Amino acid sequence: MKTYHAEVTRDGKFWLIRVREIDRSTQALRYRDVETMARELIEIMEGPGSGEYDLHLEVHLPSSVRDHQARAEVLRAEAQRKQAEAAAENRVAVQELLALGLSQRETGEVLGVSFQRVSQLAKTC
Fold this sequence. Notes:
coiled coil; DNA-directed RNA polymerase; alpha+beta; DNA-directed RNA polymerase specialized sigma subunit; TTHA1013/TTHA0281-like; transcription; 4 helices
């Protein structure tokens, strides 16, 4: 099955779509129409039906947008690490309170969580 590659860029109010394999371009007003417009261009120029080829869209965003996306990914990864650290600290807090002789219900009340959550945390210690 043949694969076509459509390079997509924003230019003013339009999305410009260039299909490399046929060296032709088209445009779309909305991003949701990009794939349809690319497929229509391919089918007009090449003739295959919609199920006879693959289409790969390559969206080229401004470098500032890519920079923001990269920073967001770093922050998400950092947040996941911090969340794991917080969960570990909660488990230790539960373990210490249970070791002091508090019930799971009391531990939950003291920590502001349900006794079911205390039970879950206690099982992972």
